[in-house]
User: What shape does this take?
Amino acid sequence: MLRIGIDLGGTKTEVAVLSPDGEILLRRREATARGDYGASVAQMARMVLEAERQLGATGTVGVATPGAVSRLTGRMKNCNSTWLNDQPLPQDLAHALGRPVRLSNDANCFALSEATDGAARGARVVFGVILGTGVGAGIVVDGQVLDGPNGIAGEWGHNPLPLPQPMDLPLPDCYCGRRGCIERYLSGPAWRASFAAESGLSLGCDEIAAQASSGVCQAASASLDRYLDRLARALAGVINILDPDVIVLGGGLSNLDCLYTQLPERWGAYVFSDSVLTRLTPPAFGDSSGVRGAAWLWNGVDG
Assistant: This one.
């Protein structure tokens, strides 16, 4: 049976159809119907049905969402695409398509994609990290997404940054209502803002890293060093609790080569072990992992 994945993003909605062995048979993107819940549901249903008509076959449907489904209400919560919050998306999309659908957070789908046939294929416990506009993560154990009873497993970005140091103070306010969240230190916008405040310069994260590597900008070198130390502390906290086999980095910042060479040299100072065998890797599928993971939410279903 075909596996159909939907990646419902804030700016684009993507549908991909996978064969049972993971080959992408069809892939389409459209601008998301922003701000209009009913239009978003109708758009997803139309894109799925059009894909099925083109391929002459039907499939299971999974959706990567920018939030989670509340265990209490069955409605969406924690969506940065705010028009989805408190809406019965699983029920409405299932009704529009005439079949059950499975939904999971986009970070969960990223982790599932990389654990199924990507960079972490064959690993038992996978922690898939998103380092981009925000900071999130998903957990996959034995090929299955770990959601947890509250539907928030992997919400790494809204934990406090471990072992705050003088350079981390004062603790920054976060939009979630808490202070000192990991996201407020490690997201792309947070790093850029921190560098600008320290140096008076406006550079992108890749530019900061490039100038640091070339040694032409002392402020960039210091900023990268702080970022790496904060990320090492944050990932060490995950290793101490979850002890994953593989950590896969995704999002725009995952393209920085220095993360893979320097983080494993740094996080050992914060991990409660005499050695760290956890493997750190970039993603195999990049920004395709979300939609692929959505399709793989139906792993194990035959037909």
User: Anything to note?
Assistant: The mean pLDDT is 94. The chain is about 35% helix and 20% strand. Residues 33 and 40 are 5 Å apart (CA to CA).
